[in-house]
Amino acid sequence: MHCTAVHCKVMDELNRLSIDSRVTVRRSGPPDPAGTCVVYWMQRAQRGLDNPALEVAVQAANALAKPAVVFFAPVPFYPRANLRHYRFLAQGIPDIAESLRKRNIGFVLRRFPEHSLTKFCEEIRPSLVVGDENPMREPESWRRSAAKKLSTPLWTVDADVIVPSKLLEKAQYAAHIIRPRLQAQLGRFLVPPKNTKAGVAWRKPPALQSLDPEFEITQGWPLDASVGPVSDFRGGTNEALRLLKEFIAHGLGTYGVKRNRPEVVGTSRLSPYLHFGHISPLTVALAVQKADAPNEDKKAFLNQLITWRELAVNLVRFDPNYDNFECAEPWAHRTLASHAKDNRPVLYSERQMEHAETHDSLWNAAQMQMVNTGWMHNYVRMYWAKKILHWSPSPAEAYQIAVRLNDKYQLDGRDPNGYTGIAWSIVGKFDRPWFERPIFGQIRYMSGESTGKKFDSKKYIQQNSVP
Ligand SMILES: Cc1cc2nc3c(=O)[nH]c(=O)nc-3n(C[C@H](O)[C@H](O)[C@H](O)COP(=O)(O)OP(=O)(O)OC[C@H]3O[C@@H](n4cnc5c(N)ncnc54)[C@H](O)[C@@H]3O)c2cc1C
Q: pTM (2 decimals)?
């Protein structure tokens, strides 16, 4: 009788967790009571702090009175990732290990070719596997495949957005449409995470293979090393928290006036950390919310972090053409098609652009900022992409060049924000039609002359002179 009551309580708790709005049940069924632990399959949310997916795994483990174990296994074949990205990822691993240790959670680090989740689960026999979410097509396909292969239930948790992206149900067509929908949910989701400790410690079976967190996981991998690591950004949760603190102390209070000045440090520079999941958008938003700074600056920042970032996630989640020209709205297709045959007095090859060999020193500086530091300021990113449209034989080619260069050099590349920024710049996605002009049609134009007058462009060009 007593046993049944306890069992019911456990099942109630697991049921409560599985119907959480952040959770998607990918493989249903009751967690195996004979399993040895609950596994968190870490992919997108590479942190042990403020991680809703890890939180679900730990709470499930505690309900089952079993240990929680994180399984993290990087692979060298993520599309368009190179040595620069992997070094940043690797720098974050010791911080993950440290946070997990403090929370009494086990950690298994493997790498290609020992990266198989199913093989790991066969070795360890978990009661339940919890993963995180990433709307991009490759990681989504890995989750679907894991759901077919695993013999335990698989839940995934939308851990890197503030409002779970599935709640928006369909594509949102503009920032002003998604904004009130997100705002309406903030009371429910913008709340301090619990960071629950695991109640039962995990004892690693001696024969179970796991790498030391300090191991250089890229060693021996055939990565594209033509894009080297950068010294301007160091990966990891600790560094992300330091940058956040610095931004709140010195940048947030002037964000409204300085955020469009690429020659000064006026923004958070947190995008690489948000991309790799080294910091949670919840951590950032909560810290900004409670900071002592003018309301309009906080509002402007949260508009980027929440409205624009989650609009980008929405685009990737609901539009399979998120990274190509086909994601354009009908008005943009029409206007660009009607200017397809316009004379293009200046044409550059992708190679010339990649090497910053254009006549435009502001554009070259933007390209070099990205090549040398792994990051480009938002204001010049818009100009940079629009000029690629100006100088390419067709909008479709311009789109692909922008995607390739962005994904290759930006530490925050290969991200929903990147595809949305390129779509906004080149095909007017989430923008509106402007005045008709050659090549661009009704796509908003940015001239070098007027863009360069809005900030100290001479200084910016000096700071990022070739090479
Ligand atoms: C052509 C183009 C390409 C871009 N490529 C990327 C990319 O590959 N990866 C990427 O993360 N961002 C990209 N962006 C969006 C934006 O430029 C960067 O997120 C921002 O510059 C990062 O700097 P920060 O962290 O200092 O931003 P902050 O101004 O401090 O903003 C805080 C956070 O809000 C989010 N954010 C800010 N601006 C935007 C925006 N316009 N759209 C969506 N989210 C935003 C980011 O997560 C950012 O880290 C691109 C924009 C354009 C126009």
A: 0.97
